[in-house]
Amino acid sequence: MRQFNISVIGLSGTEKDRGQVGVGKSCLCNRFMRPMADDYFIDHISVLSQSDFSGRIVNNDHFLYWGEVRKTTEEGVEYNFNIIEQTEFMDDSTFQAFKVGKMDPYLKRCTSTKVFSAEKLMYICKNQLGIEKEYEQKVMPDGRLSIDGFVVVFDVSPVPNRSVEKQVEFVQNVIATIIKNKKPLVLVTTKNDDAYELYVREAEKISQRKDYKSTVQLIETSAHESINIDLAFLMLAQMIDKVKNRVKIISYQESAKSRKELLDTRSEAVTRLIRNQITDYHILWSQGSKMLSQYREWNEFLNIFGNEAGQKLFRRHMKKLRDDHLNKKLHQYLDKFALALEYMLPDISALNISDDDAWECARNYLQNHIEFEQYFFECPQASWTELIDMDEAEDETRIPFDVLETSESETVFRNYLNSVQQDKKKIGWKQQFKMLLEESGFVTPGKQLSEVRVLFMGRECFEALSEHDCQQIYDIHQDEIIEKSKQNFVELLLEHAQYFLQFKNVDIITQEDVRQITDVIQEDSRYKMLDRLDQERRVILLQHLRFIHCPIREHCPFFNNCVDSLIEEVLSDKSASNHKSQGGGWKTTGNGSDRTLNLLIVGSEHLASDLLNDIRICTGSKGEYIYENQTYYLNYRIANGDMEAFKAIDVSSSGLICVYSNQQSFETLKDNLERTLLCNLELEDKFENLPIVLVYQPQDLKENEVEYLRSEGMRLSEMLHCDFIDHTQNHQKYVYDILNIVILSLKLTEMKSYEPYPSNHTDLRILCCIFCGDQYDIENIVQPLVAESMMVKANEHSIIIDVFIGDAKRRVEFILSSYHGTNQYRDELIHGYIYFYSAKRRSSLANLSILAAQNANIPLQIIAVTESGGVNAFFNSDICQFLITEGNALADRFKGSFMTFSADQYVKFAFYNPFLKTAWDNKYEVENLHVEESITLDSGEGTLENSVNQMPRPPPRHESYMLSNTLGTDGSGSENYEMLPTRSLNSLNEERDISLDEIYDDNNEKPKHLHQNCTESDSCASSTERRVRQQNAYYKANKKAATTKKNKKKKVAIPVQTPRVPPFGSYVSPPEIPLHYQRMAGAGGVGVNVIGGPIGAGEKKKSEAGVSEFMKSDKSPEYSMVPELANAGIFGAENLPEFNMNAKCLKDFEKLEKRRIKEETARLRKLQEKEKEQEKKLKRKLKQQNAKGITETTEAQFGKLMICSEKDDNIPIFLIKCVEFIEKEGLDSEGIYRVPGSRAHVDMLFQRFEEDPNTVIDVLDIPVNAVATALKDFFSKRLPPLFSKDIIKELEEIAGSRGVGSSKLNVEVKTDRSCRLIALKSLLQKLPPINFAILKYIFQHFVHVSDNSKLNSMDSKNLAICWWPTLIPIDFTDMGHFEQLRPYLEDIVQTMIDQFPYLFCGKDAFVMV
C-alpha cells in the first residue's frame, strides 16, 4: 500500500490579497479527511492570537497537518494520504502575517517539497485551539514530510475584494514552480455549487495551456456538497504512482446529478424507515434514534446528512404523526357528533332560527339538552387536543364539547342541516309522485315508465326527483298493482267455483277448455287488467285448475296464509303457552296396561328399611298395587340421606320418599335436600316433575319435640313444593297415602303432556271449515274453543273438549280445516259441519255453497263473519247485506242454522251450544247414514279403504264408553257403575260439599251400599270426569287440620316437581285395595263400595268381630269392592275359593307371614349395619386423604392430566401449559374467562392431554377462550377441591358472612379489614403444601391477567366473579343462602388477587383500612 504526502495550496494572505473569504482549502481538506456530515466544519479562520499560533497545532508554522487517511479506488487499490495545507496565519492584533524567523514569501513556501515541524499536532477544527487535550491528538510523523504532489485550489465563486486576475496570476506562478520541481499536481476548482461561469472558463484556460503539455488535470469540486473530493486526491495519487488506467474525470454537473439521486434515495429510504418503525408520536428523539440506529439506512443517512438533519426529519415525522392522530380523533368525534345530531336534533324546526345564527343556536340547544351528558363532556382545564395526550381520556367515549368550536364540526352541522332539509323535501316529492301514480288511471299493470312519462311532465315532484328515484317508485307501484291484480284475478276464479267444479275430476286440460273458461270470464275488468301480462295470467289459471283437481295445501293460492298452516300455528302456540309438555315417571310393562313404579326411599338410622317393610306388607311379596283399576308393580331402592343418594336418581325414577324420625335425621335430610334440589344445577333435569313425599315417623320423643319436628317438616315441604305425611296422625293408611300421592302426581304430569285422544273415544265430531284468504283473524274464530279449561289438543288440526250437552257431559272433537282440506275427511264420520265465510267476499260464499251441497244430509251451521261494527256492517255495505242474505237463504235451503260473528266480537264457547245440541240429537241418524254409505261402497261401489270393517258402527246413544261390568250387578238387571259418592258438575253451585259423614250412618254401622242405577248423564260421563269426581271425594274425605298439609306457595324456580294445585271443587281419588284383595272380592256375589277412614271405637269392634286377623296384619285399606255376606262377616271360608282357606288356615298364614317379615327385617338390618360400617371406613379414608392434600390417587383417578412437573413444585402439567398459553396469547383477549369457549375444542384439549401429557397447545389451533374454559373445567371437574369443608367454613367466617355474633372470630377481626386479611393469611398457611402451591400458581396468573385489564377488561373483581364458584365449591341450602354468601366469597377471591404478594409471597400487604 502506497503512502503519499499531499500539499494543498491556494491563494492566501491578508484580506487585501485573498479577498473577504479564502479559496476553500480548509473545507476541501476537511471533507477529504472526514467526509461524515457531523465531522465537517464550514468555518476555518486564519486570524489567530499569538497563543493559538504558538500552540502545538499551528506550532509557529504557516501550514496545518490534517492527519492521515486511507482511500480505495474502484479497482480496489488502497492509498494512504498525509495531508498538509499551506496557508498564511494573521495576527489578530496587527492583521499581518506572523513573522517566524527568516520567512520566505508564501509563493515559495507553499511549493516547498519538504516541511519540518517537531511535535506538530493534527488539526481538526478551530474549536480545537487552546483545548487540544479534549480532541484526538496525533503528531505529524517524524516531524517532517516530503511532499509527493500538490493540489492547487482555484476558487470559481465570486468573492468581494478579489479579482480573478490576481488569482489566475498566483495559480500560474504556482503551477510553473511545481512543474519546475518536477512534482505532479492537479488543479481543483472549489465552490462549484456557487460557481461564476467566467471564473470556470479562466480555470479551464489555465489547465489547457500548451506549455503545461497536458500535465495539469482540472477537477471541479464542491466541499459543501461533497462532490468530486475523493476524485481529485485519487487522481493525484495515480499520477504520482504513474498508473496508466487512471480514474475517469467526471464533470461537476454529472457528479452533482448522481449525488442528488443518491441523496434522494437515502432520504426516501430513511423517511420510509421512520414511518414504519416510529408509529407513536409520544416517542422522544433519544428513544427513536436508538431504535433506528440498528438499521443500515439510518446510519448511511446520518453519515451523509448528519445528526441534525436526522433529528429534523424525525421531528417532522413526529409532528405529522400527532397531526394525523388529531385528525383521526377529530374525525371520530365528528362521526359521533353526526350520530348525536340525529338523536338529539331529529327535527331542525326545534331550533326556530335563521341560517346565520343556526350554528350558535344549535350549540346552545345541545348544551341544554337533557341527554347532553350522554354524548358530550366539558373540561375547562384543557382543550380537546391536550386531552388526547392524557391517559385518563383514553377510556372516554363521549365528545369534548370544545370540539364544536372547530370549523369542521360546523361543517358537519351544516351538512346535516342540508341533508335533513333535502331529505324532507325528497320524501315529500316521493309521496306526491306515489299519490300521482295511484290517482292516475293510465298506469296499469305491465306498462313501462317511458309510456306514461309524458303524463307527468311539468309536475314538480316528477321533475325534482332523479331518474333513479322515479324509476324506483314506479317499480314499487307496479309491483303493488300487479300483485293486487293477481289477487283480484284469483278472486275472480274463486267466485266461479260452480263453473270450475266440472274440471275437478278431469285429468287433462285442453286448449279448448282454457278457451271456454276465458270466454266466461274475459269480460270482467279483473281479467282485462292483466292483458299486458297474459303469460302470468295464464299461469295463474293453470295453477287454479291444478288446485281444483288436487286441492292440497301446496296448491292453495294462499299458500303462505293457508288456513291449514295458520291453524297449526294457532293451536301450537295455544298449547305451548297453556301447557308445558311433561314426561311420565313410570315405565309400561310388557302387557301394555300394567306399569312399574321405581321408588327411591331415603332416610337414616334404619328408617328407610322400616318404611320399605311397611310398603311390602301392604303390597304383598310381588309388590303389586292397584289404583283405579290399574295395576302398578313397585321396585324399591333404599339409600342413606347423603348427596350420593340423590345423585343416583335418574330419569326412570318415579318417586322420592324421604323419611325422618328425630332432630339428627331431620337435619341430615334437610341439609342434603336443600343442597341437592336448590343449589345443584346438574341435577335439575333429574328432579323435573319428580314426585317427592316427606314422611315423619316420630320415635321416643317428647311431645314438644314431636310438634317442633312436625312443623319443621311441614315448612320444608312447603319450600320444596312436596307432600308431607305425618305417620302419627295417619297411621292406618299412611303407606297408601304415599303411593297414591306418587301415582296421582305422575298422572297429573302425564295429563299435561296432552297425548292425542283417539277419535273413537269421542261422542261427537264437528268439522269447522274456514275459507282461505278471508280477511279476518283466525285466532278469533279458534279462541272460544281453545279457551275452554277442559280443552285437549288431539293433533295438529283438532282439539277435544268435554262439554255439557243437555244434562250430561259429552266429549266433542272439533276438527279445524280449510275448505279445500275437508276432502281428507269425506270418508270419516262427521256429526256436523260449521262453515265460516266472510260477509264481504263473494268467493267465500260461492265455495261455501258447493261444500254445503256435498254434505246436505248432515247438520250444518253457517256463520257469516262481518267487519267490526256488528249490525251496522249489514246496513252500511251493500255487498255485506247481499252476502248475509244469501248465506241465510243457503242455511234455510239445507235446513241448517245461520249466525253472524263480528271480527272484533269476543264470544264464549256457549256460542256453539245450540248447534252441538242439534248435532247430538241427530247423531244416531248420521252414524246410521255413514254406516250405510260405507256398506254400499264396500259392496262394489266403493273401495276397500271405505270398508265397513275399518269404520265400525258406533254404539247407540244410551250406551256408555266407560261402562264397568267386572264387578257384578245388584240383581235389578240394570248396569252398575264403579262410582264413589259424589255430586254432579251441575251441583257445583250448591253451598255444601260431600264428606265422609254423609256416607256412614250415625250409629257407625257398616258402609252403605253405593251401587246405584246410573242415569244417562252418569253412563255417558267420560273417564276423566269420573276420575275428577273420585279425586274430589278423596280430598274431601281426607281433609285434615292445617298442621297435616299446608297450601303450597310459589317459590323461586327450583329443580323439583311441579306444584300440584287441585282444581276448584275437586278432590283426590282414594287408594285402591291391593291385588290379592281384588281377587278375593271377585269371588263374591254382589259388589260393595266401602269407604274407609279413621276407625272409631264402634268400627274397631265390628272389625274384630267380622274381619280376620289376616286383614289387620296386611294393613289393607277399606277402600274396594268386596262381597257382602249375610251373616258371616266380610270374609268367610266359603267365600275364598281361590285361596281355599278357613279361619284356622288364616291364623297359620298370619303366623308364617309375621315370621317371614321378622326374618326379612333382621336381614335388612344386618345389611344396613354392613353398609354403615363400609361408609365409616370410606369416611376415615377420605379424611386421611384430605389431611395429605391432593394425593397420588388423583393421577390414577383423572389420568395423565394430573401428572406433575417436578421443577414447578408438583404443579399439574395441564395447569402449567394452559396458563402459559393463556399468558402468551390471551392477556389481550377481551373477556378472557368470561366469554366461554367451544365445548368441542375443550373436549379435544382434554383428550389430547390424556393421550400425551407433553402436548403443545400452540400446534392444536385452539382459541384462547377454549383453553380458558378448559382450565376452569379442570379445577371444577378434574382437580379435587383445594379447600376442605372445615377451611371453607372458616373462609365464610373471615368473609364476615355469618354476622358478628355467630362466628368464633372476635368482633375486632370481623369488622376490621386488616385483621381479616391477617386471618386469611393464617388460614391459607393451614393448607397442604401441594394445595397451597397450586393456589399460589393460579392466583399469580390472575395477577398477570388483572394487570392487563385495560386490554382484556378483566380486573380482579371480574375475575373473582368468574372464579369464586370454581375455587370455593360451597353447597348452598337455598337461593337465599346463595345470595347471602355470594358477595362475601367474591370479596375473598378478589382480596386474594389484590393482596397476592402478602398472602402468598410473604411481602408487605396493600391493606385498605
Written overview of the protein:
The chain is an alpha/beta fold and 1409 residues long. The protein has 52 helices and 30 strands. Strands 13, 14, 15, 16, 17, 18 and 19 form a seven-stranded mixed sheet that branches. It has a seven-stranded mixed sheet with strand order 21-22-23-20-24-25-26, sandwiched between helices. A six-stranded mixed sheet has the order 3-4-1-8-9-10, sandwiched between helices. Strand 22 (798-805) and strand 23 form a beta hairpin. Helix 15 (407-439) runs parallel beside helix 18.
Which helices and strands occur, and which strands form pairs?
Layout: E1 2-9, H1 15-18, H2 25-33, E2 47-48, H3 50-54, E3 63-72, E4 78-86, E5 90-91, H4 106-110, E6 114-116, E7 144-146, E8 149-155, H5 164-180, E9 185-190, H6 197-207, E10 217-220, H7 229-241, H8 252-277, H9 285-292, H10 296-305, H11 307-344, H12 358-367, H13 372-375, E11 376-377, H14 384-387, E12 399-400, H15 407-439, H16 449-456, H17 460-464, H18 467-495, H19 497-500, H20 511-521, H21 525-528, H22 534-549, H23 563-578, E13 587-588, E14 595-602, H24 607-619, E15 624-627, E16 630-639, H25 643-647, E17 655-660, H26 663-679, E18 692-696, H27 703-720, E19 723-726, H28 734-752, E20 764-770, H29 778-786, E21 791-793, E22 798-805, E23 808-818, E24 832-838, H30 842-854, E25 860-866, H31 871-876, H32 878-893, E26 897-902, H33 913-921, H34 923-941, H35 1016-1019, H36 1023-1037, H37 1075-1082, E27 1087-1090, H38 1097-1106, H39 1109-1113, E28 1120-1123, H40 1143-1188, H41 1193-1198, E29 1204-1205, E30 1211-1212, H42 1213-1225, H43 1239-1251, H44 1264-1278, H45 1285-1295, H46 1307-1311, H47 1313-1324, H48 1329-1347, H49 1349-1352, H50 1356-1367, ...
Helix pairs in contact: 5-6, 8-10, 10-11, 11-15, 15-18, 18-22, 18-30, 23-29, 24-40, 26-27, 30-32, 42-44, 43-44, 45-47, 50-51
